[in-house]
């Protein structure tokens, strides 16, 4: 009989019975990975054998394979094979890093399965898998430290905390293998930088350790390898690519009567009957949305349309309580559920088993994301994955078509690792100082062997040291400050209190303050942003975790709720974040598609055109309206000018992605406001951007050319950052990582401050602070995608500009105008702005009276 | 524009003018003059009012290992001295939260305040104790405070740190002048311009001053019908009541 694993305790340590234990008698077990796979009726793929061979030989590397092809088994059985060759020993041997703590329990389960079956003769020693994340209780943490497991599943944040503990040197000394799961998810984030630093530390503590990353499709795999193993080892690391054919069918739901106007959010729900019809026809479906609010709405709508499905549908997103999420995952695994509505919270993770089809609500925004979500269906070998795009407004039809074409063409996006994140470095210095201290030259050499800090210069290193030791280079500005101090050539943390605060602050995700949502009669529902809850009054009704709720009381930390009765409209929380821009590749594909259509619009019977994509055929009337009122974007840059009751508007369509458009809008507004003090409102989508102001916009091409010119681009962009709130807003994340503000839950009242306030104090009293410089750089690179923006501006310089006067908003302008997120840029004094606001309001009042 | 409540007239100074001498035969001095720089003046008694300086807040942060630079406290104290000199102030009333926390009250912070005290030696300084001041503990005599009081009644005024919540609980028939809330207000125009800043806010029987300290946060006030608002900046003060009402 196979030894029983304590499956009833999914989150606790599960120990394999000792080799000599009676439980194993009568159980031979299988000898090695291939035998184990064979016992399950599987045959190892060539890429799995390749990984086992390389890991057995002590080589590090990256395994790139599509979702659901056996990456986990490749790495885990490889790690066990390596452990086998190194012989029996105690202590921690394998660290398994996972990007989401929600995945940890699943991962443990997947790792335990082969362990239970492998024969003790093949794998000697005591093998157990434990999990440690931010949710692990203090008692469990103590137990794990006292008796470390052979393999530990954890997150980058928790790994950093473990590296900051006094016993980190001993705890990791025997480490043999590190596996970084879903490396592509971490790669281009601050958490990726934190992971790189932690991996470098582990390589110092355990010089013989090997590192393997698991990644889905990515264009820049070589960079991903260098970031994983460090630049000095990149040449000797191996890249293994799985050649597993996966069949994929991608189609788009096309609404029958097309609306003339693409109003965001309307059309999506109109497709509900069609979605329900298709869910009905299949046995299990996943419905992916791009935001949590959208998930709440769709879950509610499906449940209202089919009350009989209520027991077999589930909602899964990052704010829903863990137990509810786990129940949804479990339901999927057992095939009990008809349909799960989810956000990216289900993008990652181990296999769920039988999912027949996947719906993508709204544009997928990126080719890699489309592939990843599509990969959730049809997992059985030889099965065909099926993904159905459900556009939420008419123009998304074109994005869906472009994405499908790109998948067929076999292109996919890159994810660039971040470099020069001094906030992460400053945090890491304190982390290492907490654990036995460091010599400055040694640690510098160590961090310089990460891709993130490969070219670390003296100034940056010294600044990071000064920041940790004295607050900043100007000693006078930071009296009584020290996070690390030097004793006999080594740097240690300044006090136990500082170490405690630091461990609490480790973690680089800038999350908003959240509050718990609880039933009045007991039980948790999940968490929601404080900013949403503070706008509600007792008695207000809202939709959360798939349930209609009434707020009973909100005490600042917990929102107590009751079930809402009656059918009045419900508010849906808007969570921040989660809005991905259209990727460069996809934007390009969209523009190409539009251009190919532009030439075929003119004959009135264009709808009969053969070979036209079904999505394009569906939006043809809309494109014809656009062509009639204005024109279609082609090789020219289109500018539309329109006057509305609320002021003057200009719409520009460079098709360079939302982030670039935000940057361009700020740049153009700033350059205009240099000529005359004024205030502009700006909005951007993936297709173009809008400027709105009190005065009419330029009518001459030459004037537009001047404000769109590539000359002085960087200088002007840096200058206009001061005129917008962007830098101040972006500083929040940096301040959190560098330990300037506490994030998440409210902590010490006396040291609470908003990042904006600290930004102001730094700007005034320590203007050379490098975190401010980093903020500007990150806004340029990440917020505006500076490289892409420069390319866009240079392209415009060579383009013809077509200025069109429209009498109302054109079909392409409409979604930009309806965009809810707007920013402002002003070069006017506050008093002048107040005066103008007052005048505007009086005019508006006069207009309503007249 | 001068507004009146409970017989108390509130006016705001013209930006950039020399407002303390602004009284003429036609326009008598108001009872409370709101000044640029987030302070208020009682012209009749030449009393300057400031609230919520939170001195030593940056030092509190540094003690906790958060590197916030020095400088805001010195600048705020210099601004107090400037206002006292500019308006020939006889008495300074601090409406609570002069200091932020015990851990931030370093000898340097106290010394800086004592230095201000010596610069305005002829002016009386009264501290109406705030919740943060209580937490600091006993204040040293070297600060030269003439009085530390829980509140101060000088009809028609009742000076206190925390404004009482209900109208009924406000002191008898007096007009309350307070701090504590760190009020801010957001303005919005039809064309999309938005502006949020610190403000004075008045209800019929209460005036709340903005936080004077530059390293202090704000609390957004939800406008109500009878409230009046003045945007309070370093370089000016402006009545925005009508704007707030039109926006609401």
Largest sheet of chain A: 8 strands, mixed
CATH topology grouping of chain B: Purple Acid Phosphatase, chain A, domain 2
Task: Please compute the radius of gyration of chain B using only Cα atoms.
Answer: 18 Å
Which chain pair shows the most residues in contact?
Answer: A-B, 57 and 45 residues
CATH-defined fold name of the largest domain in chain A = Rossmann fold
Radius of gyration of chain A: 28 Å
Query: How many β strands of chain B by DSSP?
Result: 17
Please summarize the sheet with the most strands of chain B.
9 strands, mixed
Distance separating the two termini of chain B: 21 Å
Helix content of chain B: 10-25%
Count of individual beta strands of chain A:
27
Please characterize this protein's 3D structure:
The complex is a heterodimer of chains A (850) and B (248). With 850 residues, chain A is α/β, with parallel strands linked by helices. Chain A has 33 helices and 27 strands. In chain B, helix 2 (72-86) packs parallel to helix 3. Chain B contains five helices and 17 strands. Residues 15-20 of chain B have low confidence and may be disordered. At the A-B interface, helix 20, helix 29 and helix 33 of A face helix 1, strand 13 and helix 5 of B.
């Amino acid at each position: 009989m196979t030894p029983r694993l304590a499956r009833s305790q999914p989150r606790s340590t599960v120990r394999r019975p000792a080799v000599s234990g009676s439980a194993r008698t009568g159980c031979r077990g299988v000898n090695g990975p291939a035998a184990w796979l064979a016992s399950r009726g599987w045959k190892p793929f060539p890429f799995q054998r390749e990984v086992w061979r390389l890991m057995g030989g002590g080589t590090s590397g990256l395994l790139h394979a599509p979702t659901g092809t056996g990456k986990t088994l490749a790495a885990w059985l490889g790690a066990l094979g390596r452990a086998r060759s190194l012989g029996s020993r105690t202590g921690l041997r394998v660290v398994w890093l996972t990007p989401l703590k929600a995945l940890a329990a699943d991962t443990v389960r997947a790792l335990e399965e082969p362990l239970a079956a492998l024969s003790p003769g093949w794998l000697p020693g005591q093998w157990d898998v434990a999990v440690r994340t931010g949710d692990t209780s203090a008692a469990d943490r103590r137990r794990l430290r006292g008796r470390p497991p052979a393999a530990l599943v954890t997150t980058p944040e928790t790994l950093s905390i473990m590296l900051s503990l006094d016993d980190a040197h001993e705890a990791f000394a025997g480490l043999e293998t590190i596996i970084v799961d879903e490396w592509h998810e971490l790669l281009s984030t601050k958490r990726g930088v934190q992971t790189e630093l932690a991996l470098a530390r582990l390589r110092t503590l355990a010089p013989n350790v090997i590192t393997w990353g698991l990644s889905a499709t990515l264009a820049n795999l070589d960079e991903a390898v260098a970031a994983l193993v460090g630049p000095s080892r990149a040449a000797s690391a191996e890249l293994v690519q799985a050649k597993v054919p996966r069949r994929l069918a991608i189609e788009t739901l096309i609404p029958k009567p097309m609306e003339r106007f693409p109003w965001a959010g309307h059309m999506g729900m109109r497709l509900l009957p069609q979605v329900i019809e298709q869910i009905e026809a299949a046995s299990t479906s996943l419905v992916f949305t791009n935001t949590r609010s959208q998930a709440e709405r769709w879950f509610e709508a499906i449940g209202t349309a089919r009350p009989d499905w209520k027991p077999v549908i589930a909602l899964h997103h990052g704010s829903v309580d863990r137990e509810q999420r786990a129940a949804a995952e479990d339901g999927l695994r057992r095939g009990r559920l008809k349909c799960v509505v989810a956000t990216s919270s289900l993008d990652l993770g181990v296999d769920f088993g039988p999912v027949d089809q996947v719906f993508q609500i709204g544009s997928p925004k990126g080719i890699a994301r489309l592939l990843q979500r599509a990969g959730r269906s049809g997992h059985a070998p030889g099965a065909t994955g099926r993904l159905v795009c459900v556009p939420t407004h008419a123009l998304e039809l074109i994005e869906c078509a472009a994405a499908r074409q790109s998948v067929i063409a076999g292109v996919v996006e890159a994810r660039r690792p971040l470099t020069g994140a001094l906030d992460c470095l400053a945090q890491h210095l304190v982390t290492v100082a907490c654990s036995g201290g460091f010599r400055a030259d040694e640690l510098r050499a160590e961090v310089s062997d990460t891709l993130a800090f490969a070219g670390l210069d003296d100034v940056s290193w010294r600044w990071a040291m000064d920041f940790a030791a004295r607050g900043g280079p100007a000693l006078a500005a930071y009296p009584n400050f020290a996070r690390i101090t030097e004793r006999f050539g080594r740097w240690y943390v300044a006090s136990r209190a500082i170490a405690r605060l630091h461990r609490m602050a480790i973690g680089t995700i800038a999350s908003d303050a959240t509050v718990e949502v609880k039933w009045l009669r007991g039980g948790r529902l999940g968490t929601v942003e404080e900013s949403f809850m503070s706008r509600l009054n007792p008695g207000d009704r809202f939709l959360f975790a798939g349930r209609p709720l009434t707020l009973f009381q909100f005490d600042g930390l917990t929102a107590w709720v009751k079930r809402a009765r009656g059918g009045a409209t419900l508010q849906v929380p808007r969570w921040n974040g989660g809005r991905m821009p259209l990727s460069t590749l996809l934007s390009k594909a969209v523009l190409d598609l539009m251009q190919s259509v532009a030439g075929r619009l003119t004959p009135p019977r264009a709808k009969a055109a053969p070979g036209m994509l079904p999505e394009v055929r569906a939006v043809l009337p809309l494109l014809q309206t656009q062509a009639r009122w204005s024109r279609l974007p082609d090789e020219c840059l289109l500018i539309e000018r329109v006057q509305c009751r609320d002021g003057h508007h200009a719409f520009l369509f460079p098709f360079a992605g939302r982030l670039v458009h935000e940057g361009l809008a700020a740049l153009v507004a700033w350059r205009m406001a240099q000529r005359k003090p004024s205030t502009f409102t700006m909005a951007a989508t993936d297709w173009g951007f809008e400027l709105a102001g009190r005065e009419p916009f330029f009518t001459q091409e030459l004037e537009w050319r001047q404000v769109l010119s590539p000359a002085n681009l960087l200088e002007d962009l840096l200058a206009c950052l001061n005129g917008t709130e962007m830098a101040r807003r972006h500083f929040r994340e940096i301040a959190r990582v560098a330990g300037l503000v506490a994030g998440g839950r409210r902590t010490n009242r006396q040291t609470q401050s908003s990042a904006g306030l600290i930004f102001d104090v730094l700007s005034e009293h320590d203007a050379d602070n490098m975190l401010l410089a980093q903020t500007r750089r990150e806004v340029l690179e990440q917020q505006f995608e500076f490289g892409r923006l420069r390319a866009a501006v240079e392209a415009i310089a060579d383009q013809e500009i077509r200025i069109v006067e429209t009498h109302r908003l054109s079909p392409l302008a409409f979604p930009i105008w309806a965009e809810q997120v707007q920013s402002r840029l002003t070069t006017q004094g506050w008093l002048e702005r107040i005066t103008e606001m007052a005048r505007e309001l009086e005019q508006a009042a006069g207009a309503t009276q007249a | 524009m001068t507004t009146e409540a409970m017989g108390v007239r509130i006016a705001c100074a013209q930006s950039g003018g020399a407002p303390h001498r602004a009284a003429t035969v036609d326009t008598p001095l108001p009872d409370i003059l709101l000044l640029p720089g987030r302070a208020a003046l009682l012209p009749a008694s030449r009393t300057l009012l400031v609230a919520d300086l939170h001195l030593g807040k940056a030092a509190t942060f540094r003690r906790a290992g958060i590197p916030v630079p020095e400088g805001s406290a010195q600048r705020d104290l210099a601004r107090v001295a400037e206002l006292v000199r500019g308006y020939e102030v006889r008495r300074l009333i601090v409406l609570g939260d002069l200091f932020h926390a015990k851990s931030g009250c370093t000898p340097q912070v106290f010394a800086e305040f004592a230095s201000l005290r010596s610069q305005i030696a002829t002016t009386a300084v009264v501290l109406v104790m705030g919740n943060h001041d209580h937490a600091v503990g006993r204040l040293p005599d070297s600060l030269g405070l003439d009085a530390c009081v829980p509140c101060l009644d000088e009809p028609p005024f009742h000076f206190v740190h925390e404004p009482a919540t209900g109208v009924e609980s406000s002191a008898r028939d007096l007009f309350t002048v307070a701090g504590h809330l760190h009020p801010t207000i957001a303005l919005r125009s039809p064309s999309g311009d938005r502006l949020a800043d610190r403000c004075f806010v008045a209800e019929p029987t209460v005036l709340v001053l903005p936080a004077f300290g530059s390293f202090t946060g704000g609390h957004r006030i939800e406008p109500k019908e009878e409230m009046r608002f003045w945007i309070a900046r370093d370089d000016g003060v402006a009545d925005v009541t009508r704007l707030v009402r039109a926006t609401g």
